[in-house]
Write a structure and sequence with these properties.
By secondary structure, the protein is mostly beta strands. The protein has one domain. It is 0% helix and 28% strand. It is built from no helices and four strands. It is elongated and about 45 Å long.
Length: 64
């Protein structure tokens, strides 16, 4: 998969620069039917599923 999101959509006033660090997390849910009791989830870092906790986000260091 590939994703492209404009920095402005993330609330940035300007594009970040090399060396900037920010928190990052992602979760992908899979529920094959509305009746599925326990949907599967795949996460990158933590802090989104099952509960939101920004303290568990990973850190992303931007390079040049």
């Amino acid at each position: 998969y590939e994703i492209a999101i404009p920095w402005s959509e993330l609330g940035a006033l300007q594009a970040p620069r090399a060396g900037d660090v920010f928190g990052l997390a992602a979760a992908f849910n899979d529920a094959d039917s509305p009746d599925q009791r326990d949907p599967s989830a795949l996460g990158l870092f933590g802090g989104i599923a099952p509960a939101k906790d920004p303290g568990k986000f990973g850190l992303l260091l931007l390079g040049s």
